[in-house]
Amino acid sequence: MDYRLTFQEYNKALKKDRLLGLKCNDCGKITCPPMMVCGECASTNHEVVTLCGKGKIVTFTTCNIAAEGRENENPYTIVMVELDEGPWIMGNLVSMDPKKVDMKVIGKPVTVGHRVYPGDKYSSQPMARPAFCIIE
Q: pTM for this structure?
C-alpha cells in the first residue's frame, strides 16, 4: 500500500505555506496531517486536497521548558486549531508573546504559515511545522 500523500510532500508544501490534507472518497472526512487510512472509516481511498489554512483556536498550552537542543525557543505556545474544513491540527502560535497568552485566545481566528525547525537527535533533517497567526 502506498501513501497517497507522504510526510515529505506535506513538509515540502508547508514550506511554501500550502497546507495539504487528504479527503476520503468514501466518507468525505478530511485528514490533516496525512495518515495512511481515514480516521473515520479506515478507507485508503483518498485524494490530496489543498486546505485554506484558516481556522480557530480550540485550546493551547504554553511550554516553559524547551525540548533538548531548543532552549533558545523558550517559552513557546502550542495551539490546537480546528481548520475551516474540519480537521484539528497542532502548531506554534507565533503572533503573540507566550507570556501574554491567556484564555482569551480560545475561539480566535488564525491563519497558518510555517516555521522550519532544525533536526535533532531524533530527526535527520530540518522540518517545517505549522505556525499560526491570529487574524485581527
A: 0.88
10 DSSP assignment: H
Q: Are 34 and 4 in contact (CB under 8 A)?
A: yes
- Lookup: cell for 3: 501513501
- Within-domain flag for 2: no
Does 96 map to a domain?
yes
State the Cα–Cα distance between residues 4 and 113, nearest whole angstrom.
Answer: 23
Considering the chain, what percentage of its residues have pLDDT values greater than 90?
74
pLDDT at 1: 64
Q: Which element (helix H / strand E) includes 8?
A: helix 7-14
Note if the bond before 75 is cis, omega within 30 degrees.
Answer: yes
Clarify whether residues 40 and 62 are in a common domain: no
Q: Classify strands 88-93 and 127-134 as parallel, antiparallel or unpaired.
A: parallel
Indicate the pLDDT class of residue 7, thresholds 50, 70 and 90. confident
